[in-house]
Specification:
Helix content is 40%, strand content 12%. The protein is α/β, with parallel strands linked by helices. The chain is elongated.
Length: 339
């Protein structure tokens, strides 16, 4: 006996259907029967009115177009995969409650499970985060871009499980003297770093009444993580510097970087402001038209910078209230050379 296939709107394989298409597909001549069919499909959650398509002029009215609501896929078969294939120390709860997410992640989860079972001893040896990511998934950025870490979290595991170490960007530094007890200046911006380096190569070592031996290029926020590897990046003479100064833009971002550095590396070395440079910037700014803040800049700062800049704190706040900032580059090569 030949089975008769029942027609459904899903057979049309379209996301939007007009009333005419529905009528022709189901071969309905009677308008009232068409209304009955479409209304029942709407009630069942198979079709949804496209209200922007407006209704026809018939009685009772129908909308001219209807959206086909995708079928809810039955993913219960994945439960066995989770229950029987996950190692005992992997959390099953998240994926059992989110089968659709497991379907998306399944390929990567299975690769990780295979690695975990076959090469678990490899986890005893530390690797960089990108090296481990490539060893497991063949994608070096899979962990760093967050995708791999999200899967670990879903499995109830942490990044520490993979025995990885981070690799901050190494910072660039230049020394005019290679003796111990260094006087170090961290400079936020590249142009100012190159300017002072140029002057150091010309034989200058005193800048705005500060004797300096080494300058480090901060590269904005990059320095915040880079200093974690300070002792592994620098030569021996730079270990345990006698003084560490910071100099950046007079804006919320530059101030925030300084305040975070000061708090974060309190146990490693004492970081202070290159106050003379900031005072010079304020004096030069009096006769200049200054650039405006970016709307995207985070404006949350503590009171550390302003307190250390007394009695200039109020002047800096007034500057910010005017919506402008002072770039480090206001103190240029000629000014530093004359000073």
């Amino acid at each position: 006996m030949e089975l008769i296939k029942i027609k459904t709107v899903y057979d049309l394989e379209k996301k939007l259907l007009s009333v005419t298409e529905i009528q022709e597909y189901f071969n309905i001549d009677n308008y009232l029967k068409l209304v009955e069919l479409i209304n029942s499909l709407v009630e069942e959650g198979i079709l949804a009115e496209v209200k922007g398509s407006k209704s026809n002029t018939m009685n009772p009215p129908l909308y001219n177009k209807y959206r086909v609501i995708p079928k809810e896929e039955n993913l219960e078969f994945l439960e066995n995969d989770i229950n029987y294939n996950f190692p005992l120390n992997f959390n099953r709860e998240f994926y059992l409650n989110n089968l659709k997410k497991y379907k998306e992640d399944k390929e990567y989860v299975k690769v990780f499970i295979e690695y975990f079972r076959k090469y678990r001893e490899s986890l005893l040896t530390p690797m960089s985060i990108n090296e481990r990511s490539f060893e497991i998934w063949g994608k070096e950025k899979f962990l760093k871009d967050g995708s791999g870490q999200s899967i670990l979290k879903n499995l109830g595991l942490s990044l520490e499980t993979l025995n990885v170490y981070t690799t901050p960007e190494p910072f660039v530094y230049f020394s005019c003297k290679k003796e111990r007890n260094q006087r170090v200046l961290i400079i936020e911006n590249k142009d100012t770093w190159y300017t002072i380096r140029k002057l150091m190569l010309e034989g200058k070592s005193t800048f705005l009444n500060e004797e300096l031996d080494t300058i480090i290029y901060g590269s904005g926020k990059t320095i915040e993580k880079a200093l974690e590897e300070y002792e592994y990046t620098v030569e021996d003479y730079l270990l345990n510097p006698s003084r560490v100064l910071y100099w950046g833009d007079i804006d919320f971002e530059g101030i925030s970087i300084y305040e975070r550095l000061k708090n974060r590396y309190l146990d490693k070395f004492k970081i202070d402001l290159f106050k003379n440079a900031y005072i010079k910037m304020l004096k030069l700014a009096g006769a200049r038209k200054l650039p405006k803040f970016s709307e995207k800049q985070n404006r949350n700062i503590d009171n550390i910078f302003l307190k250390e800049m007394e009695p200039y704190g109020e002047e800096i706040l007034n500057l910010f209230q005017s919506g402008v900032y002072i770039p480090q580059e206001i103190v240029n090569y000629n000014i530093l050379r004359r000073e």
